[in-house]
Write a structure and sequence with these properties.
This protein has a single domain, classed as Up-down Bundle (Methane Monooxygenase Hydroxylase, Chain G, domain 1). The chain has 115 residues and is mostly helical. The N and C termini lie far apart (54 Å). The protein contains five helices and no strands. Pfam families: T2SS_PulS_OutS. This is YacC family pilotin-like protein. InterPro entries: Chap_lipoprot_PulS/OutS-like, PulS/OutS-like_sf.
Amino acid sequence: MKKFVRVTLLSSILSFSASSHALSESEAEDIADLTAVFVFLKNDCGYQNLPNSQIRRALVFFAQQNQWDLSNYDSFNMKAMGEESYRDLSGIAVPVEKKCKALSRDSLSLLAYVK
């Protein structure tokens, strides 16, 4: 009976861990990149009125749509990753107006889903 309980417990633990996928490095980078896009829109494109709470909801919505587990989000240095993404985005040799237009077209619609 003890052996049966152990096997059952072990299999349930393994099945739980198999279905739980923590946020990977590349997924964290994607979230940092999207955060940098919103920061760029706010700082460089005239969208200063975008509420931070709505941006946070959009980031969570984005992660949920991709079925990402955010339980280990705090294990990444998201501030540093976001700052690096922002520097990369700012350094792209495209006029700011073109960047703003493309980023707003491709990203602001995400905010509409989380109003």
